[in-house]
Write a sequence for this structure.
């Protein structure tokens, strides 16, 4: 069971990329339950996005359709959050683009898109958000970023050379930027989930043979649930982690 802490994020404004499904949707639900206002950035169509946020109090949530592989649309995640809610405290660079297969078989377009979503988009979001966060001179913590990477970005994995390389780049960026901005009062951390039950990994759960093969490499012999990952990500965003920056945690369900 995953518990919520009502009021923990009262007054906070959060932007989440990939916020309408999987881990992003779990983050959105829990942030709203804990008092935050949330901009949900997702490339799903407007009808699906509006349908997703209809379950929440309208004053706490805003859906922003964005294909963050485009630099202008990535930047718009920040500008739209501030335009709608008037502030920005926490950013989750959560969106990813999967491209499975060995490198010789991968198209240049797929390679490029994985990096556009997984590395370039966070770059543009960092550039837009950090100057805004620095304006929070009255706050001990002026801003927080929590990046969703992947165990493939730390250990590598079969068929995930491209995806893992992009996530490794974001992990390194997490370390470097945390050092750059610690004295600005901005914390930057990341979590590297292993196998998690999301739309991106649905095929692993639907095929019994694949399920058993993947489960055997996970200590708990099951996938993580999005809500379980959201709990870890939100701890890093909370004031309970006020002394944590530059961390890249692979502890949620690592392989053995």
């Amino acid at each position: 069971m995953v518990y919520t802490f009502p009021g923990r994020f009262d007054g906070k404004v959060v932007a989440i990329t990939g916020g309408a499904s999987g881990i992003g949707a779990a983050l959105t639900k829990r942030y709203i339950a804990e008092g935050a206002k949330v901009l949900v950035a997702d490339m799903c169509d407007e009808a699906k996005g509006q349908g997703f946020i209809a379950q929440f109090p309208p004053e706490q949530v805003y859906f922003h359709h964005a294909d963050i592989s485009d630099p202008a649309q990535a930047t718009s995640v920040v500008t739209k959050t501030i335009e709608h809610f008037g502030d920005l405290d926490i950013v989750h660079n959560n969106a990813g683009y999967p491209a499975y297969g060995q490198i010789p078989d991968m198209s240049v377009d797929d390679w490029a898109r994985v990096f556009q979503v997984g590395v370039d988009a966070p770059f543009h979001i960092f550039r837009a958000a950090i100057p805004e966060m620095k304006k929070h001179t009255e706050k001990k913590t002026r801003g927080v970023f929590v990046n969703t990477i992947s165990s493939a970005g730390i250990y590598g994995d079969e068929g995930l050379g491209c995806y893992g390389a992009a996530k490794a780049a974001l992990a390194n960026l997490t370390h470097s930027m945390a050092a750059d901005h610690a004295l600005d009062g901005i914390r930057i951390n990341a979590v590297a989930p292993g196998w998690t039950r999301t739309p991106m990994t649905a095929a692993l759960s639907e095929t019994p043979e694949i399920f058993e093969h993947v489960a055997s490499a996970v200590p708990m012999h099951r996938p993580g649930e999005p809500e379980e990952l959201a709990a870890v990500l939100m701890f890093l965003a909370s004031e309970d982690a006020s002394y944590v920056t530059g961390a890249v945690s692979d502890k949620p369900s690592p392989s053995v």
